[in-house]
Amino acid sequence: MYTFIHYDRTRRNKMVKTNLTVISNFIFLGFTHYPKVEIIIIVLCLLMYLVTLLGNIVLISVTILDSRLHTPMYFFLGNLSFLDIWYTSSALAPMLANFVSGKNTISFSGCATQMYISLAMGSTECVLLSMMAYDRYVAICNPLRYPIVMNKRVCVQIAAGSWVAGCLTSLVETVSVLHQSLCGKNIIDHFTCEILAVLKLVCVDTSKVQLIMLVISVLLLPMPMLLICISYAFILSSILRITSMDGRSKAFSTCAAHLTVVVLFYGTALSMYLKPSAVDSQEINKFMALVYAGLTPMLNPIIYSLRNKEVKVAVRKLLISECILYCIFLLKTDDMDKINQTFVSEFLLLGLSGYPKTEIIYFALILVMYLVILIGNGVLIMASIFDSRLHTPMYFFLGNLSFLDICYTSSSVPSTLVSLISKKRNISFSGCTVQMFFGFAMGSTECLLLGMMAFDRYVAICNPLRYPIIMSKVMYVLMASVSWLSGGINSTVQTSLAMQLPFCGNNIINHFTCEILAVLKLACADISLNVITMVISNMTFLVLPLLVIFFSYMFILYTILRMNSATGRHKAFSTCSAHLTVVIIFYGTIFFMYAKPKSQERRKEDKLQTADKFISLFYGVVTPMLNPIIYSLRNKDVKAAVKYLLNKKPIQ
Questions:
Q1: Which residues pair with 347 in a beta bridge?
Q2: What is the spatial distance between Cα 403 and Cα 388, in angstroms, rounded to a whole number?
């Protein structure tokens, strides 16, 4: 018996070695059997992907920004939208990238990652849809107890449980399939690493794997479906007892939307995964996979989210309806200017006066950080100028970013240091305007530059042979110029609109600099136009560059996972991790500050106002200090250039 077990384990180890040594890449057949309609399928997939991203991002943004949508229903919808973005991106984005690059291959680890993400998202959606049905059941059948039953803690626990269940089951399925021996077979008759398509390559008995998949399928498909059926049975019973026709219509519309999504998703998923047999028509499976990977996530925000009146009102409030106040604002502009010139000639910056005992500590910390910013970024600029080896697009952008960081911090830090040491906290109206302009211009430009740098890394890693052609000197100089010009124009618009508002003698700014949100809180008139322009500005300078960064790194990650060289992977990952660290730090803090430009929202919350000051200090000082360290001074090329400059002997 021991000999048999030892032999069996030895045989399994050989299978795993076969997978790792022989199968290093997989080849996708995709829709190559239909060459005449392949381009049509790709175009349709691209359109579905773009609509999915746009619809779900809008839904997530609205549910976060509008307090009226802070309910369990929209909390689950936000989770579902976030899930759908990742679900679709795991399947359609690599397929589109393969079509563009002409390479239908993926590495073994890349295939494992793709399979895991798609299974995890699909499994989580199964559970989440049933939880949403339960939420509707409580809302309709027990409306008085709804706030108690579906409180915030319960909602978070339900969502977290759905994610954990999906991720764990996906891990079990992925490991069980890819642990099998493939005996050199690496041609997947699919457009993605779909688990059933990969299972067909296994050349040993798959009964255990199929048993595992059957158990998980029962847990994630029939059981949640049963919960949905029971929930809607009670809902239907309650609706039929409603005497009001309006009440019935409203309840039916909510249920119909959710049920449509359930039928689409569960119908295709049940037919695909309930019976994982290898005799099914693979061509039909591909098109069914397109339905639940592309069509369903695209329809989700449309059929039961964007059709909802509350969501429509929220979107209209943020982007459209407030524009009516523009004409009223224009009529009052002249009077506002007169009031400003008459009553407000200077502003008083409170700064960190609420902490008098620690002001000297803040002064020392800010001074040290400012000196590090000047030295670090100054050295980087000099190295990128004087060392010809750094005359590349990457270091050109880094040089621009360093110069921008110096200007960014210099627009606010020196005045902050003077106010801390001299206790002189006043600033003139024109000085406040200049400070606001430079701070906003540098911040907007940095957002665009970070997006440009992500695109530069995408071309360098994903298209290395075409890199010198695409990122020519004319191109990267133009990209940098557009970033600077756009940031300047955006800042001019925002600063002009803010400083034209009447302040009615209120000149105490609860901040250490003329930060635009702190100044808007002093206005004694309607700031709807400022809110609208800032929302548009946020979408242009925050969301769009972030989408460029996201897509760039999706393609970069996909390319890295297909690399066979461990050294090449490590080098690519190190470059990406440095830039991503800066992006997360900068965008994370600035999103928190500017994604909700409402000057009245924290009027009576002093603690949150103090937190805003420190957050502003963080992205205004700490981030520029870290930039030359985390992805510039850590770079071997920059280190070599700095050593060369320090050791260079002057000409006698």
A1: 427
A2: 19
46 exposure class (CB count in 10 Å sphere: 0-12, 13-18, 19+):
middle
Cα–Cα–Cα angle for 616, 329, 350, rounded to 5 degrees: 30
What is the enclosing helix (H) or strand (E) of 428? strand 426-428
Nearest CA to 178 out of 27, 23, 5, 28 is that of 23
* Residues 316, 299: Cα–Cα separation, whole Å: 20
**Helix/strand/coil for 595:** coil
CA distance 510 to 205: 71
Q: What is the C-alpha to C-alpha distance for residues 125 and 114, in angstroms, rounded to an integer? A: 17
pTM for the full predicted model = 0.51
At 200 the three-state DSSP class reads: coil
Fold matches, 13-319 and 358-636:
yes
Q: Which tens digit of pLDDT belongs to each residue from 165-190?
A: 999 999 998 888 888 887 777 888 88
CA atoms within 13 A on the CB side of 633: 18
Long-range CB contacts for residues 483-486, cutoff 8 Å, separation at least 24: 483/400, 483/445, 483/448, 483/449, 483/452, 484/400, 484/445, 486/444, 486/445, 486/448, 486/541
CB 527 within 8 A of CB 601: no
Asked whether 541 and 535 are in contact (CB, 8 A), the reply is no
Q: Which helix (H) or strand (E) holds 497?
A: helix 473-499
- The closest alpha carbon to 129, from 8, 283, 269, belongs to 269
Buried-state track 244-263, b at ≥16 Cβ within 10 A, e below 16: eeeeeeebeebbebbbebbe
Which amino acid appears at position 315 of this protein? V
Report d(CA 471, CA 464) in Å as an integer: 10
Judge whether 87 and 165 are in contact, CB under 8 Å.
Answer: no
Q: Which residues contact 263 (CB under 8 A, 6 or more apart)?
A: none
Q: Which two tokens stand for residue 56?
A: 């779900």
Q: Enumerate the domain spans of the chain.
A: 13-319, 358-636
CA–CA gap between residue 550 and residue 112 (Å, rounded): 21
The CATH number of the structural domain formed by 358-636 is 1.20.1070.10
Task: Please say whether the structural domain 13-319 has been given the CATH code 3.50.50.60.
Answer: no
Place of tokens 């579902």: 80
- Helices (runs of H) and strands (runs of E) counted in the chain: 27, 6
Task: Find, among 130, 48, 121, the residue nearest to 82 by Cα.
Answer: 121
List pLDDT tens digits, range 34-68.
676 777 778 888 888 888 888 888 888 888 877 78
Q: Which residues contact 117 (CB under 8 A, 6 or more apart)?
A: 86, 87, 90, 170
Q: For 524-578, what is each residue's pLDDT tens digit?
A: 887 878 888 887 887 888 878 888 888 888 888 888 888 887 777 777 777 777 7
* β-strands 105-107, 346-349 pairing: unpaired
Residues 402, 541, 53: CA angle, nearest 5 degrees: 125
Q: Are 483 and 448 in contact (CB under 8 A)?
A: yes
Q: Work out the widest C-alpha separation in the chain, in whole angstroms.
A: 99
For residues 373 and 402, what is the distance between their CA atoms, to the nearest angstrom? 9
